[in-house]
Amino acid sequence: TREVAGIDVPTLVVAGEADLSTPVPLVKATAERIPGARFEVIEGAGHIPSIDQPAILAALIRQHLEQAHG
After folding, report:
1. What SS3 state is found at 53?
2. 45-to-18, 25, 64 alpha-carbon distances in Å
3. Could you report the per-residue pLDDT of 19-36, keeping only the tens digit for each?
4. pTM to 2 decimals?
5. By the 8 A CB rule, do 43 and 16 touch?
6. What is the CA radius of gyration of the chain?
């Protein structure tokens, strides 16, 4: 957990709102340790947003990459 503070690249951290394995507060706390990280919660998703809400996750990733790389 402490090591994530050393991440120094644009970072998107995503949590599924219904993730019981890695709950939103835990993921948010991790994101808050990464300088400048963007944190998003995907509604209607559990532990694997790429399966539960693939279009939403893809849109977030696309937007993140566009913002990070111009």
Report:
1. coil
2. 6, 15, 19
3. 999 999 999 999 999 999
4. 0.91
5. no
6. 12
